[in-house]
């Protein structure tokens, strides 16, 4: 019998499904946008077992206390595992330095840097912050941001 998936492995699985779906997009170019969106949405929901939004909206139940930088939302998903809900969204920010914008937005909302290391290399990096209720990890660069939000309790 296998071991239970960790939140990290679940995130990797979600990211892999999204990447595969995005790569399949050109193959489906002859199909209508609605058909492609429905197929990708169904594939992601089937693989993750969670609620998925490809319509530029935050996923259902997104915590109001976790702000997202202004920009275009591409993907949102939520999954409940072991009674804990996790949310993932991707955002294309128009900010010159999206990760600095993430830090400022979360700090303004009462989040502090997590003990986990934050890092950056050029325009790419990772920001890990938390408040009393949620841990937020944002990975990204000027091309886009991937938010992962998990409850602390």
Provide an overview of this structure.
The chain is an alpha+beta fold. It has a single domain (7-151), classed as Protein Transport Mog1p, Chain A, CATH 3.40.1000. 29% of the residues lie in helices and 34% in strands. The protein contains three helices and eight strands. Strands 1, 2, 3, 4, 5, 6, 7 and 8 form an eight-stranded antiparallel sheet that branches. Strand 7 (134-141) and strand 8 form a beta hairpin. The longest helix has 18 residues, at 7-24. Mean pLDDT is 74; it is low at 7-14 and 16-48.
How are the secondary structure elements laid out?
Elements: H1 7-24, H2 33-48, E1 51-53, E2 71-81, E3 84-93, H3 98-108, E4 112-113, E5 119-121, E6 124-130, E7 134-141, E8 144-151
Antiparallel strand pairs: 1-2, 2-3, 3-8, 4-6, 5-6, 6-7, 7-8
Helix pairs in contact: 1-2
């Amino acid at each position: 019998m296998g071991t239970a998936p960790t939140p990290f492995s679940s995130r990797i699985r979600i990211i892999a499904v999204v990447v595969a779906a995005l790569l399949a997009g050109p193959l489906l170019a002859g199909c209508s946008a609605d058909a492609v969106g429905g197929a990708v949405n169904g594939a992601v929901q089937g693989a993750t077992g969670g609620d998925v939004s490809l319509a530029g909206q935050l996923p259902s139940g997104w915590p109001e206390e976790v702000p997202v930088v202004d920009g275009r939302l591409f993907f949102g998903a939520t999954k409940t595992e072991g009674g804990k809900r996790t949310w993932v969204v991707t955002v294309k920010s128009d900010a010159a330095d999206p990760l600095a914008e993430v830090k400022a937005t979360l700090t303004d909302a009462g989040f502090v840097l997590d003990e986990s290391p934050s890092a950056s290399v050029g325009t790419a990096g990772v920001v890990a912050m938390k408040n009393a209720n949620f841990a937020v990890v944002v990975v990204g660069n000027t091309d886009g941001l991937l938010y992962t939000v998990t409850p602390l309790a």
